[in-house]
């Protein structure tokens, strides 16, 4: 081997070692200074489901049972403006999906088998929550990615879903490309990824919150506080990275023409996160669907337009 070729090999080997080993040597401090159980609500409850300590809030009584699934970077607080009115219609259970809110954030090495942050695992956690609470059937109400998880649950377990309410949800706009998901799951990126998330997400979360409202000047200060508080819970950044690592393109999993349960789609006419037309096009593929479009409203109708949201809910027939 010539000296020139040998030098190239040495440089290439050094670069490869730097790429493989360097990230593992970067110190990563623990993020967040809040413990979830220390900042709960007066009605907060916890229950272990599939090895995960799940935070939920329950109100109302009787049938039907509404189970509320929030979107990415949100928490049970996203339903605060409508939960009282929903409670007049039946039992209401809102819970925090893994990686968000006050539910447990398992770390790598703390679970066996599939990541609890994967979409299929989130469906199993939802069904497991119903099992633990003794709920045979429920109306699943999901916003954004929470709606996509609810729709996937209805597609997978139609006998457990009485009706489906998809609020600004679709099978597009959520997923992570397979290559990106693979990279995110490598030891190197699992090490440094949370640092990137930590540096970028808080500002990004508030940008998404602004984009989620038709008129962001009306966002209440308390809403900003609640969204920001969730980013101060211990290991929030590592859990969010695990969610990214476990993600797959939703269109590979969720097929609207296979959803057999009655479905109500609620969407603002100014959804700039997923897109109003995308949500409508998804909903129109569901065999038994009604679509309610709310004027002058964005991606989170339950927050920005609660009265119009509830009008759509009351007008829909939730009888079995």
Q: How much of the polypeptide forms β-strand, as a percent range?
A: 15-25%
Measured between the Cα atoms of the first and last residue, the distance is: 78 Å
SSE string, helices as H and strands as E = HEEEHEHEHEHHHHEHEHH
- The CATH class designation is Alpha Beta
Task: Summarize this entry quickly.
The chain has 320 residues and is α/β, with parallel strands linked by helices. It has helices spanning 3-25, 83-87, 119-132, 145-156, 178-184, 187-212, 221-229, 236-246, 276-283, 301-304, 306-315; strands at 44-49, 52-59, 65-69, 91-95, 138-143, 161-167, 263-268, 289-294.
Ordered list of secondary-structure elements with their pairings:
Elements: H1 3-25, E1 44-49, E2 52-59, E3 65-69, H2 83-87, E4 91-95, H3 119-132, E5 138-143, H4 145-156, E6 161-167, H5 178-184, H6 187-212, H7 221-229, H8 236-246, E7 263-268, H9 276-283, E8 289-294, H10 301-304, H11 306-315
Defining key terms:
alpha/beta; 8 strands; globular; 320 residues; Rossmann fold; 8-stranded mixed sheet; 15% strand; 11 helices
Written account of the structure:
- It is a single chain.
- The chain is built from eleven helices and eight strands.
- It is an alpha/beta fold.
- The chain has a single domain, classed as Rossmann fold, CATH 3.40.50.
- It has an eight-stranded mixed sheet with strand order 1-2-4-3-5-6-7-8, with helices on both faces.
- Helix 2 (83-87) links the parallel strand 3 and strand 4.
- Helix 1 packs across helix 6 (187-212).
């Amino acid at each position: 081997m010539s000296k020139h070729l040998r030098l190239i090999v040495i440089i290439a080997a050094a670069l490869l070692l730097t790429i493989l080993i360097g990230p593992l040597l970067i110190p990563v401090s623990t993020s967040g200074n809040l413990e979830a159980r220390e900042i709960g609500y007066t009605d907060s409850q916890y229950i272990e489901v599939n090895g995960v300590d799940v935070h939920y809030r329950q109100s109302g009584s009787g049938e039907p049972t509404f189970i509320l699934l929030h979107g990415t970077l949100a928490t049970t607080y996203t339903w605060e403006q409508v939960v009282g009115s929903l409670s007049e219609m039946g039992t209401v259970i809102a819970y925090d999906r893994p990686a968000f809110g006050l539910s447990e954030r398992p770390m790598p090495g703390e679970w066996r088998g599939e990541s609890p942050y994967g979409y299929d695992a989130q469906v199993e956690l939802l069904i497991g929550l119903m099992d633990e609470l003794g709920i045979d059937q429920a109306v699943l109400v999901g916003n954004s990615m929470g709606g996509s998880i609810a729709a996937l649950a209805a597609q997978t377990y139609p006998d457990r879903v009485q009706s489906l309410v998809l609020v600004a949800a679709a099978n597009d706009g959520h997923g992570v490309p397979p290559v990106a998901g693979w990279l995110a799951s490598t030891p190197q990126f699992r090490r440094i990824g949370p640092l990137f998330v930590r540096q970028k997400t808080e500002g990004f979360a508030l940008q998404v919150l602004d984009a989620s409202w038709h008129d962001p000047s009306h966002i209440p200060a308390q809403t900003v506080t609640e969204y920001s508080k969730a980013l101060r819970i211990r290991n929030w950044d590592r859990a969010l990275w695990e969610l990214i690592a476990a993600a797959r393109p939703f269109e590979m999993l969720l097929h609207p023409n296979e959803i057999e349960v009655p479905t109500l789609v609620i969407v603002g006419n100014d959804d700039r996160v997923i897109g109003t037309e995308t949500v409508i096009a998804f909903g129109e593929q569901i065999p038994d669907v009604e679509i309610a479009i709310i004027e002058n409203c964005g991606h989170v109708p339950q927050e920005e337009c609660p009265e119009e949201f509830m009008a759509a809910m009351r007008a829909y027939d939730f009888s079995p």
